[in-house]
Design brief:
216 residues; alpha/beta; Rossmann fold; seven-stranded mixed β-sheet; globular; binds S-adenosylmethionine
Amino acid sequence: MGIVQEDPERHYFSSKVATDYDMLWSNVRMDEDNRKFIDNCYNRFYTMLPKNGIVLDAGCGTGIAESYLLREGFNVIGVDYSEDMLKIAREKAPSVNFRRMDIRKLEFKEGTFDGILCAGGVLIHIMESELDKVFGEFARVLAKSGAVFITTRAAEEQKEVVEEAHEGGKINVNYHTRNAVESSMQRCGFSIVNYAEEWDAVGRLFKYMYVHAKKA
Ligand SMILES: C[S@@+](CC[C@H](N)C(=O)[O-])C[C@H]1O[C@@H](n2cnc3c(N)ncnc32)[C@H](O)[C@@H]1O
């Protein structure tokens, strides 16, 4: 199985993995505290956006976030580099423009979006040395005062580990520190609005960071 960062064409998110992923995360059961925490995070993001603003879902996967972004009245564009994930996203949200794209090299003009969501396990595929590339692209395609909301696995020490994945595959997972993420965002022109951590909703195996930032 290809390692995601080096092999975007033949990467981990195959058709079978995409279907399993969508089944698991579309129906995930969270306890009430976790659900409240996550709802508050999304509500904070929404309040940072103009009414009917344009939101980029960066690493949209199977389009799980699209239903609630659309419900809030936003215009949404989703990008992901797995065609298999995008296929499911297009079936679930036919009104959304989904494009195959690498978040390290966004094919949008400066100032296109009011907000960017980068949620779930997208940034685990981004090495620490590439965070500036991603946040630099986010800053470039955001309008002035645009908002970003990211979630990713958090750790006390920066680390990249190989984890067992579906179908006997292996996947490289980057755990980022608060400092690595916040300082990269700041270098790229963001000011941090809020930082919070919470256990992952399924197995409570690791913590996730939830970061809201604004283009300065
Ligand atoms: C675990 S899924 C999360 C999907 C979605 N954001 C969610 O919360 O359900 C991670 C997604 O990130 C995508 N991804 C990873 N690295 C990427 C990159 N450099 N550019 C675009 N998509 C990427 C993968 O293809 C995969 O669909």
